[in-house]
Amino acid sequence: MAPSPDVTPSAGNTPEPARPGRVRLRRAAVLAVPAAAVAATLAVLTAQGALGVQFAISGMPFTVTATELDGNGFAQFGGLDNMAEGSPNAGDTGGQVLVVTSVIKKAELTKLCQSVDLGGTNLLITAGDGSTRVSASDLTTDSTFLSGDASFNNIEIGNDAGTLDKAGPKGRGPTGVFSQQADTVQIKNLRQTNYATTAGVFKLPGLKLRFSGSGC
Prior knowledge:
Elements: H1 35-47, E1 62-82, E2 96-110, E3 112-117, E4 122-127, E5 134-153, E6 156-160, E7 178-198, E8 201-203, E9 208-212
Antiparallel strand pairs: 1-2, 1-3, 1-7, 2-5, 3-4, 4-9, 5-7, 5-8, 6-7
C-alpha cells in the first residue's frame, strides 16, 4: 500500500523538481506494468464510464487523516481521474491524475479530519471526535498517497481487478489491472492525499467546518 522508493538518478541526470498536480508514476506500484499501456487502457475505460469516479475532479488534492479506520469488505486497484476541460489545475498532467482507488463496503473512522489548501488558508472539516464514530457505506477514495499501520484479514494480492467481490459491485475495477482485496482492514494513524471521495451513505457526527491557518 505504501509507495515504492525513488530510484537514485545516475550521474549527470538531475531529476526535475516535483510540481503541484504532477502525476508521480512511482506511487502507482499497484498498477500492472508497463505503466504506459495500463494508463492508456484506464483512459479508455474512463471514457466508457467503467471506472469508479463519475465526475470531473477539481484537480486540487486534499488531505484526510483519522486515528483509526475499521472496514469490512476492502478492495484496491489502479484508476485514472479526469479534470474538467480547461481546468486551471491541469498543469502538465493533461488534466488526468493516476490514482489508487480504495473501496470499503462498510467503514468506521475515529477523529476524521479533512483539509484543502486554498493558498494562505485551509478549509478544515472534522467529525467523529466524540463517542460516535464517522461511518460510511461503499466508501471510495482516489489517492496518490496513503500511509498508516495496516492489518488485513484474508487478504488476496494479485487479483484481476475485474474479478473482485469482497467490497461488492462498487469494489470491482477494470479487467486486466493488478489489485488486492480483503475481508476486513484496519488502519491506525491513517493519512491520505486524495483527489476524490464518494460514498453511498456518509454519517459525520459532530461535524465542524471552518477555515484554519493549518491543515490536518
